[in-house]
Amino acid sequence: MKDILCTTDLTLVSDNALLHALGLADRMGSKVTLLHVLGRKERNPAGHAQAEAALDEQIARTQGTGRATPLLMEGDYVDRIAEETAKDHAFMVVGTHGPHGLRQNLFGANILKLVRRSAIPSLVVQEKSPVRPVLEKIILPVAGHSTIGKLIDAVCLLARAHAAEVHVFQLMRPNEQPSDELLANKLTMLQRLKDENIRHVEVNEPFTEFSVGFAGPTITYANKVGAGAIAIMAHASDEYRYIADAEKERLLTNDAFIPVLCA
To answer: Whose CA is closest to 258, among 227, 216, 232?
Structure first.
């Protein structure tokens, strides 16, 4: 089994990301590559040595000794991670510091920029995202994207690893007719889950709150049923492009601290 790539900025958020990565690796019979991209102040012999020691300490602190391999790189943080995702890894786990996205050594970057450039599915966690031995439920909102195959692949892989139940979630707005693309994607999702023998339920959630977007109702439902993850497309669909980025960022930094699977 390919290993799990986990990014670290050597903070407590990254500790939690590594714990999630180790848990996923255990479920998949795999291991973890822990990647730290050296900041400008670390690109010298002393800084390199300190970062190397900090990586080893982080692995030991999270009981990852023998299960996680440290990897140091230099260059632009997002560029180096994106390049590494194209090398023989199954998933990436990344921690986010909140509404402003991931951060490493005071460098700010939009978390969406990273997950959109990733060649593999990304699981985004926050410092307070609980590490669960088993993800019992995964919420899969129906989307109107033209290509949803990679997201369904990722959901199936994660669901099989945890024997999870997938909730195919559609928000039912009054007096609004879903697009043909959205309905077709919903049928594709349901059929694929059936073919893969993955437990799943179809959820048609009535619209009960004022919200132009989809993030709020999705988070509310996921929190209500105790979901272990929400799965979303990293890229915006044409249908809701004008609000999609803000809604995706709201999901990635949701106040219920639910991990978000992006593909």
So the answer is: 227
Q: What is the pLDDT of residues 11-43, one digit of tens each?
A: 888 999 999 999 999 999 999 999 999 988 899
Residue 195 contacts by C-beta under 8 Å, 6 or more apart in sequence?
Answer: none
Tell if the pTM clears 0.70, that is, is over it. Answer: yes
CB of 230 within 8 A of CB of 214? no
Which candidate, 97, 133, 122, 180, places its Cα nearest to that of 4? 122
Span 213-246, pLDDT tens digits? 789 999 999 999 999 999 999 987 655 554 577 8
Same domain, 150 and 235: yes
**147/251 same-domain check:** yes
Domain span at residue 7? Answer: 3-125
**Secondary structure, 3-state, 73-119:** EECCHHHHHHHHHCCCEEEEEEECCCCCCEEECCEEECHHHHHHHCC
Domain count, the chain: 2
